[in-house]
Amino acid sequence: MAIQDIYPTALRLLGRPVLVVGGGPVAARRAKGLLDAGARVTVVAPVASAALRELADPGLLTWEPRAYAPSDVDGVWFVQTATGDAAVDAQVSADAETQRIWCVNASDHEASAAWTPAVAVVDDVKIAVNAGGDPRRAMALRDAVATALETGDLPLRRRRIPKDVDKLNHQGSVALVGGGPGDTGLITVRGRRLLGQADVVVADRLGPRELLNELAPDVRVIEVGKTPGHHPVPQAEINRILVEEALQGHRVVRLKGGDPYVLGRGGEEAEFCRQHGVEVEVVSGVTSAISVPAAAGIPVTHRGLAKGFSVVTGHEELSEVPARADHTVILLMGVGQLRESASALGKAGLPAETPVGIVENGYLPNQRVTIGTLATIADQAEATGVANPAVIVIGDVVRVSPFAPSHFKTADYSTTTPNKPSTTRVLTP
Fold first, then answer.
1. Where in the chain is the domain with CATH 3.40.1010.10?
2. Helices (H), 167-229
């Protein structure tokens, strides 16, 4: 049988009688698949495997514990042979052919009137792959396609509302997706998948912006990006947009940088959606507070240096933050008030020689690292024009960075496998 002779189609077997001849593992797998399709399954086999008996005992299928008889094909819509005996399978296939019933002959795929594809289900998409009678090849291809759908590399987005859905009352949904620090490879698999299903994307200035270029042309992108001190689209308006678009039946993705719940106002957006009866899903992201320091080889905790850390914005009071070099302080959106923040931490008791690292544009080609001390970092940042987006790390963990000056390091805390970004500049006091 040549692949050109195959006409791909799908059978709707709900409530229809089907026959499986054979009692081994293959028969059990085929019977399970037919049950999943809603068919009324009868198995004919002198002996049934444990897997088949588990389906027969509670009455999910009917097992006839005997040899096959030609009359078994009477009145069925579909037949699957899996006896392991080529002669018996051939007889079943011939009997089905006589009655013009489609039959899969497991013993001889070349002579079989039908083939069973390798199948996977992703959401409401069913993938079926035939590969010239090579089941292992078909399974490998099926798995590759399913993975691409799961990860968002292939478009899973619906183009039509199913007929059984009331279009007038059809409501969409909102997904708050943390896109990570900016590199497209650092968005989660779930986030990438939801982005590929979106009808509307409400996008921040930060996050994996390059993924927007991969959206279908009819996906609307609504820009609501903010910069420090400049909010062209107020948060109340963002909340309203999310609810309004969802109530129109759209799948909405709120694509945010970092994590929606780490200084990202995702909690407010989720609460507003729920208050207005809109289904909302929150997809955690790789927060820049941890990932961006890591891009410069700075761990936020490190044995012998720091057991804990605090994450604050440069706009918040620092008086409650532990003023110790062994407790890492991470400042987000803190460039504009860096001098004031450094002064506040110094007044709280943090030593002036405490190491400070600033990582701009983490994981991007123009990433830059500036390292100094609590006493010097503000002057260094001004001299070189440090700008947001940047993450500021304060504490002894900065000593671990491969970009820290040699006199910052000790034999115990040096790194031997630096994670070098594409572009760096190290400034020392």
1. 173-286
2. 189-197
Q: How far apart are CA 394 and CA 411, in angstroms?
A: 21
- Give, as one character, the DSSP assignment of residue 116: P
The backbone torsions φ and ψ at residue 222, rounded to the nearest 5 degrees and listed phi first, read -105, 115
Where in the sequence of the chain do the CATH 3.40.50.720 domains occur? 3-116
Catalytic positions, written as ranges: 204, 226
Alpha-carbon 302 to chain mean position: 29
Any idea which residue has 């011939």 for tokens? 94
pLDDT tens figures, 113-138: 888 888 888 877 888 887 877 778 88
β-pairing, 308-313 vs 327-332, is parallel
Q: Which pLDDT score is estimated for 121? A: 84
Location of structure tokens 């006091």: 429
Domain 289-408, architecture per CATH: 2-Layer Sandwich (3.30)
Q: Which residues are paired to 202 by β-bridges?
A: 222, 254
Residue range 333-343: mean pLDDT, rounded: 91
Contacts of 112 (CB under 8 A, 6+ apart): 1, 93, 103, 104, 105, 106
DSSP assignment letter at 96: H
Residue 64 bridge partners (DSSP):
44
Model pTM score:
0.66
Strands of the sheet containing 220-223, edge to edge, are 220-223, 200-203, 251-256, 173-178, 279-283
Name the class of domain 3-116.
Answer: alpha beta
User: Looking at residue 86, what DSSP letter applies?
Assistant: H
Mean of pLDDT values over 349-353: 93
Strand order in the sheet with 17-21: 62-64, 40-44, 17-21, 78-81, 102-105
